[in-house]
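Database export, one record per block. Field names are fixed; values are copied verbatim from the stored entry.
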Amino acid sequence: MAARRVGGGSWQRVLSLSRRCCVLGGRCSSSSTALGKTTDNAEVAQEEIVLPRRKTWDKLAVLQTLASTVKRDPTAAHYMFPDDPYLMPKNAANFRLFALSKESGKNAAKFIIQQFPQYFDKISVEPDVTCFMPEILTPQIEGVSEEALKERIRLRRVKESVDLFDQLVQAGTPVPLETTNSLLDLLCFYGDGESTQEKEEEAKPEEAKEDLEEPGVNASEKKAPKRQFRRGFQSSGPRWRENNNAERIFKVMPERNAHSYCTMIRGMVKHGAFVKAYDMYIDLLNERHKADVHTFNALIAAVPRLKDRFSERWELAKDFLNHMAQQEVQPNLLTFNAVLKTLRRCGGIGRSMSLLVIKEMEALDIVELHPSGIISEVLDDVENRSFTPQDPDDANFFNTAMQACCDLKDISLAYRLNKAMEKGDNWKFLNMERLNIYWSKFFSLLCMMEQIDVVLKWYKEMSCSLFYPNPKNILELLQALDAANHLERIPSVWEDIKQMGFHRRPELLEELLSLMSREQHPDEIQQAFAKCAEDIKAVHEQSGREQVQLQWTSSTVGCIALLFARAGRTQDAWNMMERFQQINRIPTDQVLDGFWNCAKQTNCPDEAIKLVKLAASLGLPASHRLKSRTEEEFELSEKQKKTLESIQSGSDSDSDSDSDRE
C-alpha cells in the first residue's frame, strides 16, 4: 500500500510538471509565431544558416582529451612498471633489467600461445578483436599448389617456400610472376637464410639428438664448437652466398619485371654484395626497366663500398641522382639522407657539397632531422612543429642536438630543444633508453649553466621519473651545490644516492666527504653531516659474499673523523683517528688542525694532548707545532704539562735517530 501511495503521488507530480511545460511551450510557440509575423511584415531578409561540416574524430580522440587533463606525476615511475615499490627501478641498470624482464615475460607468453595454439581454442570474447587473438603460424593448406606456396610465404617459412616452389616447377605448374616476386622478397629479406621461427624448430631436433648421445662425452666439448660458430655468425651477420636460392630462382624465371630486379638489388645491398647489386642495376637498365626510389636509396648508400676515391664516390652518387631525374623518380627523405651519409665519406668534397644538398631538400620541401653546427637555425624550423619518424636515424636527432647544446654550453638552445621535444608527438622519437641519455645530457648542462634553485627544481621533477641519474650526474649536482654554496642540501642528495644504489661508489663517497668536511657549518648542519658520515662508515664496514669490501683511504678516514669531531661525537672521532694506525695511513695536516680546533672550541685540553700523542706516535712533523699550540692556547694543569712535556715530537725523534746513526 505504501508503495502504491508513493507511486501514485509521484505520477501526479509528473503530470502536473508536464502540464506546466506544455503551457510554457505554448507560450513560447505563440510568441515565436508572433515574432515571425512581425519579421514578415517588416520584410526583413533573414540570414542564411550554414551548417558546419561534419567533424571526423580520431578513434583515440576521447582518450586523448582525457589524457590532456592529467599531468605527469613526478614521484611515480614509468607507467610500464607496476605500482609496487619492490618492482620500481631505482637506477638505469634496474630500469633496463625490469623492462627486459617484462618484455621477456610477454615474449614467453606469445611463444607458448604460438607453439601450442590447440590449448587456446576455447577463447570467447565480445567484441572479438582479431589482433588480440593468437596468431596461426602453422600451415593450414596441404599439397603442392600455388595457394600453399602463398601461405608459406606469408608465414615466412623460407625453406618450405623454396621447396614448394621447386616442386611446382618440376611438376610443370606455372607460377605467376606476382607470387615469384613475393618469394624473391622473402629470400632477399632473410638473405637466403632462415627465419627465426624455422631456426627454433630446427634447433629442437638437434637438442634432442644431443640428449640421446653417449653420457661419457663431455658436454662442454660437444657444445663449445657450436657456441663458437653461433658467436661468429652473430658477429658477421647473414651474407649473400654465391648462387643462392634467390639468384637461382631469378635466373629460371620465364619473365622478369622491374620489381624482380629491384628486389634483388636491395637484397644484395642489404647483405653485402655491393658489386653484384651494381651489376644487377646495369642489367635493369639494359632491359629498359625503371628502378623505384627505394632501390636508388640502397644504391646511393652502397656508393662508399663501390668506389675508393672521394671524387669517384661523388661522381657515382651524382650518376644515380641523374638517373632518378631521367626516370622521373621523385626523391624522398631517405634519398637525401643516403646522399648525406655518402658525403660524410667523401672528405672535403662532402663538406662542400652537403650544403647544396640541404638547399635542394628545402627546395623540394623535404624536412630532414639532422643537427649540425647551425643548431639554432634548425631549431627555428622544428621548434613549433610535430613530426613523425620517416628514417631510422631520426630517432637520434634529439640526443645529437642536445649534445650539440652541451658542446656549445648554450642553455637557451637546450630549453628550445626541450620545448620542441615536448611538442605534439615528438617525444615518440625517444625510447626509454634514448630518453634517459637525453635527460642526462640536459641535466649536465643545467648543473653547469643554471642557477641552483632551477637545477634542484628540474632534479626533483625528473629524477627517477623521466630519467635515472648516473654517478656522473650526481657528481655534477654536488659540484653545482658547491658552486652555489648550498651544501646543506647534501644530506638529501645522500638519501637519493642510497636509494639509487650508488652508495658504494668510491668517487661519490670521496666527493661527499670532501665537501662536508671542508669548512665549519652550523650545529644542525654538522649533525646531519655526521649522520651521513656514519652511513658511509657503515658502508665501508659491510662485507658479504656478493660485495667487495671498500678499502679505507686516508682522506676518507680523516674526513669522517673530522665530521664526528665537529658534531661533538668525540669517541666516534677518536675511533676513526685510531684507524690510521690500523690501516698504515697518515692523516693530513688539515685533519689534524681541524681536530685540534674542535678540541679548542670545546675547551678540552686532554683531547689536544691525546692528538699530540697520536701525531708523535705516527712520526708526523706537525706534532711539534700542535704541541706548541697546546702549550700556548690551553690552560694546562701541572699533570697535563708534564704529560705534554714527556711527549717526544716527530722532529725530535728524527733528530735523535740521526744522532744515533752518527
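Remark 1: Residues 1-44, 203-236, 368-373, 650-662 have pLDDT under 50 and may be disordered.
Remark 2: The two ends are 127 Å apart (CA to CA).
End of record.
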